[in-house]
Backbone:
């Protein structure tokens, strides 16, 4: 891979700390982003946010526009979900990140959220990358499920070229021949990205594994490989979730994850911020 193909994202350009609503990603401290797969109701989101904050998360996630594989599956609450995210984020003091599915949604998502997520299914959609880059908001760019690292970096370059200074990459697992796990967490890819780019890299062990019982172990591996943080799905009642019920953590499991991640973080010279109660 020739790093001159992505001069703005390349490692040579230094290291970048991205700020999302006052929370730094890519600095010495690790960042835990947590929350439900989908925003389902005010009560669900508030409960998820409070347990995320109690576990040490400093950014709230939640989908309002959901990129579901089936057109019959829950598609998200749309703008109502964005408004709930803003309200609950403000109430709990957590900045919020949520996905925009298409260029036309970018201004609306930017109005409500502190960062715009571009999902795995959309990593190759150049008009969306450009719109997110031009919005002025930080962008969390997820790796396409069949994208090479170079394609991910070129997608990031597209966002940077459109005017954004603040892009966070997310390794969320790639497709392999094995279907036991939903995807395959590319741990080596995380280590490689840290060498190739100045941009912060976070990992999503939830979509990478698709199985609740594997999420924490995958998270530990990602941090050991050099990830700057994690984005984890957690729900007050995972079995009742309207999307990704099998992979969302309970409040207790999220707290346990944070505790175990803290210990691995120290081993690799990083730190997870202390729990805010
Ligand atoms: C998500 O994080 O809400 C999501 C849909 O993940 P991905 O785009 O990685 O599948
Ligand atoms: Mn999900």
Residues:
């Amino acid at each position: 891979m020739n790093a001159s193909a992505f001069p703005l994202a390349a490692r040579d350009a230094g290291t970048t700390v991205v700020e999302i609503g006052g929370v730094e990603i890519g600095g010495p401290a690790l960042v835990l982003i947590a929350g439900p797969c989908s925003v389902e109701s005010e009560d669900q989101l508030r409960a998820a946010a409070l347990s995320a904050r109690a576990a040490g998360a400093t950014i709230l996630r939640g989908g309002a526009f959901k990129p579901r594989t089936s057109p019959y599956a829950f598609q998200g609450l749309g703008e109502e979900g964005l408004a709930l995210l803003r309200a609950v984020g403000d109430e709990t003091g957590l900045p919020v990140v949520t996905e925009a599915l298409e260029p036309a949604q970018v201004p609306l998502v930017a109005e409500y959220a502190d960062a715009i997520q571009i999902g795995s299914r959309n990593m190759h959609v150049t008009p969306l990358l450009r719109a997110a880059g031009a919005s002025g908001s930080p962008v969390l760019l997820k790796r396409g499920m069949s994208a090479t690292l170079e394609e991910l970096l070129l997608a990031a370059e597209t966002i940077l070229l459109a005017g954004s200074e603040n892009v966070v990459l997310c390794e969320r697992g790639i497709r392999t021949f094995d279907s036991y796990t939903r995807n395959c967490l590319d741990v080596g890819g995380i280590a490689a990205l840290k060498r190739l780019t100045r941009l912060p890299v976070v990992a999503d062990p939830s979509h990478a594994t698709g199985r609740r019982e594997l999420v924490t172990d995958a998270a530990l591996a990602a941090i050991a490989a050099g990830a700057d943080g994690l984005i984890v799905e957690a729900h007050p009642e995972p079995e009742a979730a309207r999307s990704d019920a099998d992979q969302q953590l309970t409040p207790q499991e999220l707290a346990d994850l944070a505790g175990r991640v803290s210990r691995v973080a120290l081993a690799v010279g990083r730190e997870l911020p202390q729990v805010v109660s």
